[in-house]
Amino acid sequence: MKSAKQHLQAARKLIARPEAWTRGTYGRGPDRKAARIGTDEISCWCLIGAIKAVDPDNSEEAMEWLRLTLRYEYGDFISISHFNDTHSHQEILAALDRAIEATN
């Protein structure tokens, strides 16, 4: 099982390229239609989808580090999905970087 830091790093790697990131659904296939996590047809992920794609059964600790990071910076009213859907790709990666750093 990956540590929270390793989990977040792996999720960041999945969405490092702008074309590998999406909004509005956990993942999309090459045709850009919504696709289920855990299938081979995913070509881009949202922030939650990327974290779940790394290890769907052991993602809660990584999600909690990200939640804490977002709450610290944006307050209690922002969820991971809302953050993903209302912020830029660059801001998503920066938030992941801060969450990774916080796990130290």
In short:
This protein is mainly alpha-helical and 104 residues long.
Layout: helices, strands, pairs:
Layout: H1 4-14, E1 27-28, E2 44-45, H2 47-54, H3 60-74, H4 80-86, H5 89-102
Antiparallel strand pairs: 1-2
Helix pairs in contact: 1-2, 1-3, 1-5, 3-5
Low-confidence stretches: none
* Count of runs of 4 or more consecutive helical residues: 5
Spatial arrangement of strands, main beta sheet: 1-2
State the order of secondary-structure elements, H for helix, E for strand: HEEHHHH
Distance between the termini: 17 Å
Number of β-strand runs: 2
Q: Helix share of residues?
A: 40-55%
Shape: globular
Biggest β-sheet strands, sense, barrel: 2 strands, antiparallel
Pfam families: DUF6197
What does this structure look like?
This protein is mainly alpha-helical and 104 residues long. The chain has one domain. Helices cover 53% and strands 4% of the residues. It is built from five helices and two strands; from the N terminus they run αββαααα. It has a two-stranded antiparallel sheet. Helix 1 packs across helix 3. It is globular. The mean pLDDT is 91.
Features:
104 residues; globular; 5 helices; DUF6197; two-stranded antiparallel ribbon; 4% strand
